[in-house]
Fold this protein.
Amino acid sequence: MRSQKCIKTVTLYGTAAFFFHAVMLKKSVLLRMISMDIYDYPLPDERIARFPVNPRDTSRLLVYKKGAIEHRIFSELPALLPAGSLLVLNETRVVPARLFLQHPKGKNIEVFVLSPADPELNAHLALQLKGECTFHCLIGGRKTWKDGEVLQASFGNITLQCRYANREQNHVHFSWQPAALSFAEVLESAGNIPLPPYINREWEESDRETYQTVYSRLEGSVAAPTAGLHFTPAVFEALRAGGIHSEYTTLHVGAGTFMPVKTDNALEHTMHSEQIVISDTLLQHVLAQEGPVIAVGTTSCRLLESMYWFGVKLESDPQAAFRISQDDAYTLQPLPREKALQNILKAMQERNITEWTGHSALYILPGYTFRVVNGLITNFHQPKSTLLLLVSALIGDDWKNVYTSALENDYRFLSYGDSSLLLP
């Protein structure tokens, strides 16, 4: 009887959020279909931006506001934001994480450094380790590289050696000389910028600067929070002059951000987890905010919403781990935003900390109810991607109008492409 009642409710209301609440049974059986074919669109190869525009803030800006669309330039953003807005930006910094090392038999092995082997270790702090460290990696040529074999390479005065710490888990132990250098400094000298695969070109020295936001600060990402690439000091100055406040936070972007949805049903996709860091300052600013909260990028959006759901978890379990699963937003009982955020502040005060590092696999699907974010600044995303699902969750089926308008008006797409301001 209970299952029949749930199925009837789904028929009546039909949203992903309500569906998850209603029919998430003990075994997490999902009975509804969200077809990824709905989130497909034709993206000609020539519309994928291979290089950024210069200056950054001369990129185009599509403005969507309550269904209406207009075409502007990004430098005009400060005048286009609602009065009293709070911008939340991700200040993570991209690591030159692609290493090419020499196998004892002479073959080159690519080691793509992803995240600390210890998931509880803050990625930025792990990159400050000196002399040696262990990271989870992707390995190109994994079959060639056997347990016990040492890879090495020299980069100027730096000598780097690698061996498997755990081959099954792709954990690689790195050691180097001079040992006084941090791992971040080693990668800066030895590594290549990991451009997204769809850019389809070799990285250039200029990418070290152009594939970073001007406000990037904390190393830890293997991909840039690309919505922030358009900001310049002049834009920030105009924002301040217009009374628009900015707050910074950190989500270290992982390689999973490029992972396509390979299932026909979006509900069957396994969402990747990424490390996030929130501060008491961010919590206080959001709590005090009376105007709209505008996320700069999908990473900031996912962090803000994850922060809320962590506060919800603390309501029933004050000792809850800071881990948000892809189902939490659809199974937990919501709280008022103020209460959820105050729960986190209280827990931080009890622990005598000002920052809290956690992990989130939050999966924002069409039908999701946003708890913190009121608007989004973001680039144009790949067809059939989780990022496009997030955009649809925010503006509904109007995403089709936005993307059709962008294609018809010669916008540049993906990481180095143009921008949009979405105000539902």
Remarks:
- The first helix runs from residue 2 to 13.
- The domain at 36-93+208-423 is CATH 3.40.1780.10 (QueA-like).
